[in-house]
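Here is the promised in-class demo. Please do not try to memorize the tokens; focus on the logic of going from shape to residues.
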């Protein structure tokens, strides 16, 4: 595969590690429609190799975490600290790859399942060189999305009671962000009993398996009339409905799971009364340039868990095994490593 040279405001990053996210699997399965051929991957870390014209930061040799937000940096949303709302933040339209004479699409403005990628300089954040790439890469999606949803979108506060439906890579980061925010009840909900111990390790105070029945009633009892925040990291009509039923008056459900685009969600109108709300959340409402250094500071101080998110690393030649393990729910996060 050919990778073009960087243009104005762009840099070349050699990827050393990339996590596999549910969004990548959703493209492969067709749940998220996307044109092919495409290079997937959007959770990467590596080293800057080349600068395009007009780039002064980062510098060649810098270790960086990449972000999907190819925002313009000039519009009203960017200026107000809301880069996820920038209309240009879905990335460059021109694909940087060619394969067998035809253009290849990039994914989420990144395509980190490639050893060499071309991205806008604004999509890179310089990180300390002593942080392992296999841990740092997870900040680019799982941490920004999960922790950002708790800190920025929900604004979880000390004493709040929260429920996290689905404890994969994103859900575990919601859990630990709520712990850092001072939530007093953090209830993890998952049908996979393997997740129980891991959820508690990240900060869950309780674990509920909905397959045993009575999950809504159990959670309402644990939270004394319902949760202040429910984070749905699964994103099905059933989880949205049950999540709403877990809310207290004034509570909010934050939708992080990505259902098929045509999916219609419905809840009884009565559940919206008393100030209950459904909130969408793109990329944790994050500000990567500010958030990535903050999260890595928390990691280096031992307060944010990253190494513990990595269930297993895989060589590039073992990519299909990584996909199989992820689809079988054997992983919190599997990470692909490049030579």
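The designed amino acids, position by position:
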């Amino acid at each position: 595969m050919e990778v073009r040279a960087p243009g104005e405001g762009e840099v070349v990053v050699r990827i050393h590690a990339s996590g596999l996210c549910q969004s990548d699997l959703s493209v492969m399965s067709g749940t998220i429609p996307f044109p092919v051929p495409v290079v997937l991957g959007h959770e990467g870390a590596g080293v800057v190799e080349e600068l395009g014209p007009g780039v002064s930061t980062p510098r060649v040799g810098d270790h960086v975490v990449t972000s999907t937000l190819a925002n313009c940096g000039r519009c009203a949303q960017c200026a107000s600290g809301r880069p996820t709302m920038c209309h240009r933040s879905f990335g460059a339209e021109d694909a940087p790859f060619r394969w067998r004479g035809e253009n290849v699409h990039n994914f989420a403005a990144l395509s980190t399942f490639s050893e060499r990628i071309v991205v806008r300089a604004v999509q890179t954040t310089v990180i300390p060189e002593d942080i392992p790439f296999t841990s740092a890469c997870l900040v680019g999606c799982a941490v920004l999305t999960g922790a950002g949803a708790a800190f920025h979108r929900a604004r979880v506060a000390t004493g709040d009671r929260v429920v996290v439906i689905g404890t994969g890579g994103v859900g575990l980061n919601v859990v630990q962000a709520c712990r850092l925010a001072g939530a007093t009840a953090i209830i993890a909900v998952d049908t996979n009993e393997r997740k129980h111990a891991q959820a508690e390790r990240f900060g869950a105070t309780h674990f509920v398996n909905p397959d045993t029945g009575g999950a809504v009633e159990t959670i309402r009892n644990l939270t004394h009339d319902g949760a202040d925040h429910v984070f749905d990291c699964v994103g099905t009509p059933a989880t949205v409905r049950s999540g709403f039923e877990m809310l207290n008056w004034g509570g909010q459900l934050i939708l992080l799971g990505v259902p098929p685009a045509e999916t219609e969600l419905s809840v009884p109108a009565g559940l919206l009364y008393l100030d209950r709300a459904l909130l969408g959340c793109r990329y944790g409402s994050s500000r990567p340039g500010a958030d990535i250094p903050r999260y890595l500071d928390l990691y280096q101080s031992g307060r944010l868990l990253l190494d513990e998110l990595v269930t297993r690393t895989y060589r590039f030649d073992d990519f299909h095994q990584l996909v199989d393990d992820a689809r079988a729910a054997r992983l919190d996060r599997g990470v692909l490593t490049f030579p």
